[in-house]
Amino acid sequence: MPVDPEVLAEAKAAIGLKSPVRRSEITRKDFRRFSIATGDKNPLWRDDEYAKEAGYEGIVAPALFYTSFNLPDDDLDQLDHTGLGNNMGPRFEVPVRGFPGAVTGGRELEYGVPMCPGDTIFSVETVVDVYEKEGRAGPMIFVISDTLYTNQREEVVLRERQTTIRMKE
User: Fold this and answer.
1) HSE-up of 168 (CA within 13 Å, CB side)?
2) Which of 13, 57, 58, 143 could make an S-S bridge to 164, C-beta 3.0–4.6 Å?
3) What percentage of the chain reaches a pLDDT higher than 70?
4) Cα 56 from Cα 148, distance rounded (Å)
5) CA atoms within 13 A on the CB side of 110
6) What is the pLDDT of residues 29-56, one digit of tens each?
7) 66 — phi, psi (to 5°)?
């Protein structure tokens, strides 16, 4: 059963929508905390001399570090019972009436210059496509978004393409 054309048109109207720019200042301490939290002892993000011997100017960010620093700070009274804040999650919501369920359908990452302590990282997400498919459980709407991460020198640090699958009630 195909998606109601009106619902699909509303969702497609979000193509081109951009999130507000997020700004994050990166520190050595952030790298250390991420390494401790993930148990990753790679010296590239902990030891300046090792990183220099590997061809970098100093320590660099772990590959998935970007997932940890781009979250807004919530006051403790804004956290729900799971510990998540009211401001966490998608940068914006694509309206898809009757499709309340959502799962991540995948991510593609393309790395640019490494993130280093002292960098300021800017990110903006853009909806680039919306389309429908029929699945075993019924109709689904796919929302494709690109997030561009740049540093204070306007160098690309990361491009992330994410697929979100919205499912019918």
Assistant:
1) 15
2) 143
3) 85
4) 23
5) 8
6) 999 899 989 999 999 999 999 999 999 9
7) -55, -25
